[in-house]
Amino acid sequence: LFSKDGSLMFQQVPMVEIDGMKLAQTRAILNYIAAKYNLYGKDIKERALIDMYSEGMADLNEMILHLPLCPPHEKDAKMTQIREKTTNRYFPAFEKVLKSHGQHYLVGNRLSRADIHLVELIYYVEEIDPSLMAIFPLLKALKTRISNLPPVKKFLQPGSQRKPPVDAKALEEARKIVNK
Fold first, then answer.
1. pLDDT in tens, 82-141
2. Got the DSSP string for 16-44?
């Protein structure tokens, strides 16, 4: 996995080969793909909003993704923190953005990478506790709208490339691979 031939610039994943390039680092990859497929705003102001929203989502996303790694005696406290941050900080902010302009998407009334990230985050939150979405009707509508886009709908079907939430078994398998 970690090649000495330089194909992994920082000797870590992710790395994507696209358009004759080997791109490393998650944000660089996401920005490139978003720009290539017109999901990164029409001007610098829209890109700034998309980046700002995406960074906020990344904060909550990181808490959720680290949950399976946390020691069992800390899990309840982490879950409480995730629930609190979801319902009192992050999701109210995104609900407010959608309500403030009355449009279907977060930025420029067209699909952007921020919308896709937010829907992914909503799925993660629902896997933890579906009741957390009850007070966010605009976010639920955004999730439905994006989930029904044909490529997204296909991706969400059973048997697709979408990975299930990390559990203890998957975590143990990953550790075995990394520690070889």
1. 999 999 999 999 999 999 999 999 999 999 999 999 999 999 999 999 999 999 999 999
2. EEETTEEEESHHHHHHHHHHHTT-S-SSH
Among candidate residues 64, 69, 125, 127, the one with its CA nearest the CA of residue 95: 125
Hey, CA dihedral for 155, 109, 122, 40, is it positive or negative? positive
pLDDT tens profile 20-76: 988 888 888 899 999 999 999 999 999 999 999 999 999 999 999 888 888 999 999
CA–CA distance, 38 with 43 (Å, rounded to integer): 11
N-terminal to C-terminal alpha carbon distance within the chain = 11
Question: What structural domains and CATH numbers belong to the chain?
Answer: 1-37 (no CATH), 44-156 (1.20.1050.10)
CB 113 within 8 A of CB 39: yes
CA angle, residues 105, 106, 107, in degrees to nearest 5? 100
